[in-house]
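Thread amino acids onto this structure.
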């Protein structure tokens, strides 16, 4: 219930702000970056519990049950698209993967000396892959299941 109350409270301000970006007099083009993956893993006992919670919600809502990703939240995404409709934006779906990722998500950012030192020494993934797909606003708004389909594809 609190989440719904926060959305009702924030919706009007968010829509006004986003519409101002779409105005003809806006000083520059904008890029809106949104990470719609569902629940934060913080506060969950482990990833298994977070995945179970996500899939329980998916089942109740008739949405896809995923194996590796948390179900995306669509309310804010859809509000952004509706607000920016006049600007007719393109939507870029970006997926990133890197060699050595085993699917585990750390419960907290590890900035301990050894981890920080690894980053400084350049011990980063040897390969990073990006898949970027561009969609028109019409393509996305024309399919009410668009985001769920993208997540299902990413989950394979």
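Threaded sequence (156 positions):
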């Amino acid at each position: 219930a609190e989440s719904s109350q926060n959305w009702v409270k924030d919706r009007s301000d968010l829509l006004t702000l986003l519409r101002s970006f779409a105005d003809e007099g806006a000083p520059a083009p904008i890029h809106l970056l949104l990470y719609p993956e569902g629940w934060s893993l913080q506060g969950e006992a482990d990833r298994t519990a977070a995945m179970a919670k996500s899939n329980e919600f998916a089942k109740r809502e008739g949405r896809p049950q995923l194996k590796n990703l948390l179900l995306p939240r669509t309310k804010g995404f859809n509000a952004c698209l509706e607000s920016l409709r006049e600007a007719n934006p393109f939507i870029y779906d970006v997926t990133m993967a890197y060699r050595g990722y085993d699917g585990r998500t750390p419960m907290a950012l590890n900035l301990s000396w050894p981890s920080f030192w690894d980053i400084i020494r350049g011990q980063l993934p040897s390969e990073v892959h990006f898949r970027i797909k561009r969609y028109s606003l019409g393509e996305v708004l024309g399919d009410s299941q668009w985001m769920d389909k993208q997540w299902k594809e990413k989950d394979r």
